[in-house]
TrEMBL record, chains A, B:
This is D-lactate dehydrogenase (cytochrome). Its EC number is 1.1.2.4. One of its GO terms (biological process) is lactate catabolic process. Gene3D superfamilies: 3.30.465.10, 3.30.70.2740, Vanillyl-alcohol Oxidase, Chain A, domain 4. SUPFAM superfamilies: FAD-binding/transporter-associated domain-like, FAD-linked oxidases, C-terminal domain. Its cofactor is FAD. It comes from Elstera litoralis.
Amino acid sequence: MATLVAAQKSRVSGSALEAALDELRHLLGEARVSTAMAVREHHGRDESWHPTMPPDAVIFPETTEEVAAAVTISAAYGIPIIPYGTGTSLEGHVAALEGGITIDLTRMNKIVRVSPEDLDCTVQAGVTRKQLNEYLRDTGLFFPIDPGADASLGGMAATRASGTNAVRYGTMRENVLGLTVVLSDGRTIKTGGRARKSSAGYDLTRLFVGSEGTLGIMTEVTLKLYGIPEAVSAAVCTFSSLEGAVDTVIQTIQSSIPMARIELLDDAQMDAINRYSKLDYPVAPTLFFEFHGTEASVKEQAEQVRAIAEEQGGGGFQWAVTQEERTRLWNARHMAYYAALALRPGARGLTSDVCVPISELARCITETKQDLAKSTLQGTLVGHVGDGNFHMLYLIDPENPAELAEAEALHERLVHRAIACGGTCTGEHGIGYGKIPFLQAEHGAAVSVMRQLKRALDPSNILNPGKIVRM
Amino acid sequence: MATLVAAQKSRVSGSALEAALDELRHLLGEARVSTAMAVREHHGRDESWHPTMPPDAVIFPETTEEVAAAVTISAAYGIPIIPYGTGTSLEGHVAALEGGITIDLTRMNKIVRVSPEDLDCTVQAGVTRKQLNEYLRDTGLFFPIDPGADASLGGMAATRASGTNAVRYGTMRENVLGLTVVLSDGRTIKTGGRARKSSAGYDLTRLFVGSEGTLGIMTEVTLKLYGIPEAVSAAVCTFSSLEGAVDTVIQTIQSSIPMARIELLDDAQMDAINRYSKLDYPVAPTLFFEFHGTEASVKEQAEQVRAIAEEQGGGGFQWAVTQEERTRLWNARHMAYYAALALRPGARGLTSDVCVPISELARCITETKQDLAKSTLQGTLVGHVGDGNFHMLYLIDPENPAELAEAEALHERLVHRAIACGGTCTGEHGIGYGKIPFLQAEHGAAVSVMRQLKRALDPSNILNPGKIVRM
């Protein structure tokens, strides 16, 4: 890892940094400005295989005004600024590629407002999704977007995250109503209000959602909320073939059954989950389902899906009706990433994230698994297949250049397979700096438009430089 | 109207126009370049009270390549370009404020591709929503977004349109997967593929959706499609008070009942509909409902809503179960605008379009109607109330400056009422040039960001100049 850290080229001069830090200490106090190596390293890495690239300093603001003042100070010295939520992203989003100051938003963890009657709320960017749902517990409402990790809602907005139940509730794209954003020149704007829909000018909310801190720093997020369904049930179904599982998904979606979750796990992933979570599911392609609605509609949906699954060679449904059974089932699913990593102690994950039209899903998954089988690497597959999104996780020793190169070659072939059929290189993880070459392959000339937008809003390239587009 | 046309200041010199038209005739042939006054006037007006402002010429391209070549030619001479779909917009979007060349996209009416298995399609921008649904008839699929008018899908994307069933299916924001766009310099980009979700870079699709032709000319649109529901039923319910109707809506939404449509019409609008469509509904606040789902779930939804309505003083449901009855009901609703205009022969409509959090809906509507009652004007109200969106239509003689001023004052107070409670000045019609002052009131400093984006993508301000932001 040491060599990889050395590749980081700071553009920050020592004197500029010291001058900026003096001002920041004056703004925030000594205790909220850190240059300790442990703190810097912690903020320079995410949960992926990407190497640690620590910033020069980390600051801990508590208000939008403090963020705006900190950005103004950093901008005056030309120092890069990297926003940080929980560090659970997967494409090097938080790496300080060019040095700079990381803005840790975890102290901005206040729930500003909940309006149960309007099914919306406003939170500071550092509030995590579990914190919000805990807070909402007595209101009968919940925030459904669930990327697995207990990520911050600002971070989820910044990466356009989604997860297991996007098939029903959409992604952060559909669920953010408005943002408070600090711009590169220190100005603060609100991108939208609380109206459910608006045609009032350019869609700044959607421009900032998914911009990964490169166009502005989100400090508050206004979100849609949903009523907790009257009835929820979940089930697991094992298939003799991957095609059978995928065809079940396709028919379910085509039948307009309003699934809350429909998740695919391959045999390798089921094996990993059994070992990690001490379970005894059959080691075979498996679908995890969740149904939301009234008692009657949940029953009807489940019957429809069971009939489809049986036609496609699905074994009997194992039901998880009680909250406790459901929690066990979805915890196992949420631990899939860590379960897979545990298959090979010390390994890190190179995670793919393609999303394709569902008619291409079976072919794309099959070819990807065949390609893996021909390699020397081990991997597991999970998919939010109702959306056509799946993750092949390649287990690698990041210190071994040959393994990394092999995983990157497998990944590259997978991405080109997805793009060729109208898909995307990333359904929900984002570009960071890990997927920049694929962005070009996917969007072509449109990347130059992204560059024009970046230049317009951050002419000095101080906001999370080196992510999404290189200037 | 003559004086209003005279206010238009063309920035196009005669010699530049002649040179550009020569090149355009070479590109498209004589028949597809028109300078006839009748053609120009037709393209310089929409369905609103806004005065006709004809372009200097109208062209009729048939391919993306022709649009790109035409934009390149116009840009070389600094001539404004205004895209035109069906002319059914309401905020002067098509008015040639500074002269220029209108690109009529109605010949771009090919359905490029339908993928029933993926529930998506790609159409040229001039295809109308009814044309698409006619084409889809045998596939079991439909495109739900329904703004009333048989608008072009490019125009609907450009104004971020929605309409009666956005409460279930979302707006154009949620239903456009990707666009082919010609930029101000003549380059063509694709903003997205066919993946249901993507985190690959800035959300260019959402940036162009709602940009009203000011950032690029859309030539193709990739859309989500939906399975035609197994069962559809509709109903009409009359209320003794407006509050009862609105409270029914709020409780229905809060109960997570997946309504397909839930429309409010006030007593004045019901009177207008009865006269125009020869119907005999009670002249009272009324909700129109539509339910989509399986036979069982539609029945369940309808029972739930009926119970809520009865609690709120709603009279008995009048059911419209057959296709014929439903068509009559929704045709009456769709004709609401024309029915209202017919209350005062020769009048034009000044249409408001605010959208507010639903908890504010009853107060906002009540105050708006009280304000109208104190005026000399006549007006009617319809609302896509499940989203908090409603239209107060003020009937005016556009030649009478006092009436126009009174309507504008009523409208202004309504907009500020909506913005004060977190709402928007326009839920679905867009800004055009009619609502520019309100955009500033609503978005404040964020408008300067919109201006930065416009400058970045259209530095010479040739794309539909004077709309959304003034440069």
